[in-house]
Design goal:
Pfam families: Mss4. It is built from 3 helices and 9 strands. Helices cover about 30% and strands about 20% of the residues. It has about 200 residues and is α+β, with helices and mostly antiparallel strands. The protein has a 6-stranded antiparallel sheet, covered by helices on one side. The chain has helices at about 10-30, 35-55, 75-90; strands spanning about 95-100, 105, 115-125, 135-145, 155, 165, 175-180, 185, 195. The radius of gyration is 18 Å and the shape is globular. It folds into 2 domains: about 10-70; about 75-195, Metal Binding Protein, Guanine Nucleotide Exchange Factor, Chain A (Beta Complex), CATH 2.170.150.10.
């Protein structure tokens, strides 16, 4: 019996990115009410979850006891994954940044002017109808000084004094915002896909 190959954290992050994209497509299918498409999307999510679980199990020194697999509350889950992203990106140049929904290229590799760990409230990409705009606190942003550096970013009209960045192809967003004082464009790593 051969030992399972060791999985790298990058492989796990790539699988997690695919899972996130599959979940976004699943939500869209639910909103459209397409039954056959919904079934296919659910199978994709199930497959990606199984792959991700197997990859995590193969990482050395990971304890997979049932107490470690209990659900995490929504309030702590985004913070944990976001902290991981911030630590990773503070030591690297940016990889190509793509829309998580349509995978359109938003920014080429190495084109970001820097990284800031500031915290900003951004509206959620999916809003519930009939409610006040729901927001989440996002920490850590790639800085792009010149708006013409982008490959494919859209800009909203000012909303409550703030302009937001979106994917120009599918309007997914906001993926970031325009700083009022510096006019720099800030992109949230948690709202985009990074593909090597």
């Amino acid at each position: 019996m051969s030992a399972a190959p060791k999985t790298t954290p990058d492989a796990c992050l790539n699988t997690l990115d695919k899972l996130y994209t599959d979940l976004l497509h699943l939500v869209t299918s639910v909103e459209k009410g397409s039954g056959s498409e919904l079934t296919a999307r659910l199978r994709n999510v199930e497959s990606e979850l199984t792959t991700f679980k197997d990859q995590v199990k193969s990482i050395p020194n990971i304890n997979m006891s049932s107490s470690n697999l209990s659900p995490v509350s929504n309030s702590t889950s985004p913070q944990i994954s976001q902290e991981t992203i911030v630590q990773k990106q503070q030591t690297e140049k940016n990889e190509p940044l793509n829309c998580p929904f349509c995978t359109s290229k938003i920014l080429l590799e190495g084109k970001a002017d820097g990284f800031s760990d500031i915290e900003q409230d951004l509206p959620l990409p999916r809003q519930q109808k009939g409610l006040e705009t729901q927001k989440e606190s996002v920490k850590g942003f790639w800085i792009v000084k010149d708006m013409f550096t982008f490959e494919n970013a859209g800009f909203t009209n000012s909303v409550d004094g703030m302009k937001y960045l979106t994917c120009a192809d599918c309007d997914f967003g906001p993926i970031g915002f325009v700083d009022k004082d510096t006019k720099f464009n800030l992109i949230a790593p948690s709202r985009i896909l990074q593909k090597p």
